[in-house]
Structure formats: C-alpha cells, structure tokens
Write a structure and sequence with these properties.
Elements lengths: L18 H4 L2 H4 L17 E2 L6 E2 L7 E6 L6 H12 L1 H6 L2 E7 L3 H15 L7 E3 L4 H5 L14 E6 L5 E7 L7 H14 L24 H6 L17 H8 L2
Parallel strand pairs: 3-4, 4-5
Antiparallel strand pairs: 1-2, 3-6, 6-7
Amino acid sequence: MGGPRRRSTIPLTDQAFPADAACPPEDRLSPHDSLPLIGEAAPDFQARSTMGVVTLSDYRGRWVLLLSHPADFTPVCTSEFVAVAKQIGRFRALGCEVVALSVDSLFAHIAWSLSIEEKFGVAVDFPIVEDVSLAISRAFGMVHPKAATTATIRAAFVIDPDGIIQAIQYYPMAVGRSVGELLRLIAGLQAAQDGTCSVPADWQAGDPVLAPPPLLLDEARHRRAPAEGGDWYFTPAGAPAARGRKGRR
C-alpha cells in the first residue's frame, strides 16, 4: 500500500504516421490527469529509437536520465545534444544511461543525429525515442499546452536503479539545460541515496556533505557547537556531531 505506484507499460506501436492522425488536437493537448511525481515509479514504455527498440524497464539496475526536447533541428536542442554527447562518458561513469525523447519521427531523429555528427564532430551515442503519438510524453507530463501546441517541453527525469523517479526538472523552450548541473544532480542523488547525508547548495562530487538534522533534543544539544562551523541543525558530515549521531543507539 505504501510503496511506489506502479504503472502499466506503454506498448510499442507503429509510429510512422503523422501525429495529427494519432489523436485529435483537443485530445492531444489535454493535460494528463495523473502525472508521475518524485518517489513514484516511472511509467514504463516500449518504443522505437535511433538505437533500436527501447523498453524503459530494461534499464533496471542502472540510473537513467530521461530527457525530452521540443524538436529536432532546432538551435537550443542541438546545443544541448552536442553538450550531452560530449559528456556521455561522465554520465556512464556514474552508472547512468541517457535516453532522449521528442514527438518527432524516428527518421527525423536519425537525420538530425547524422547532421550533428557531420556539423559538430560528435556522435549522438544514446537513443532518441520517437513519440509521434504523444503516448509517452503525456504519461510523463511532457506536453504543456500553454508552452507550445505540440512540442514536448524541456524535461529531465532522473530515475534510480529501481525505476523510481528521484528528480524532475522543467525548462522553457528558450533556455537550454546545463549538462554540468545534470551531472551534479545525479552524483548528489547517489551520494544521498542511503539517507545518511544530504548535499548542500553548489555541492560537487568530493565536497563535504551534510549530516541529517537531529530528531532528539539531546542530539541537538550535542551538536550545538560543532568544531567545523554550522550549528545543531547544520552539521557538515565528518564533524564530531555527525560522527556522534552514527554512534548513537
């Protein structure tokens, strides 16, 4: 009862047809009535991509960064894909696979990938999923009718190895995402995943983390004057108070 909400798989369909033929505009633009939230299971799907059929649940055991973009062959989206492609090794070093998605057709994705490789000298070595029917986009809440008529917004979902959504980012069409921040976000989630610490603002991998806040008055008193700065509610991990918390019974 208290576990993450599971969702049925969105099946693979023949997506080689115009989006307008898949569903009428008034239905296509209606908001999804049950959008996935942080802590919930990511909606599973199976769809064609530039690297073959992708089934999201096949990535269980690995972190996944699911990126949606408004359209192929657009300037901001191209800048993002070039940036992600250049840093794909850093994502994989974190045990994270990148999966991209838009409502463009598979053939548009292939042509755009080839153009990026030719014009910018970098291979798009991660799958770009087609979603001309908008089934996946609507399940993830990637279509915001007031932002654009048919395009998916710039969304990023970080999904953990158990298939649970751990972070969601939304960006407007006119502003590109920071690849450095996406990498920082994934590393921070991994550092804090066991619940024994959290990461502060502007944290980078290797920086000090923060101990969880105390839940008992005696523990708060113990942390009142940490040797490394802060206070009872703000204790860098490794300070005496943080070590004391680990030693409590």
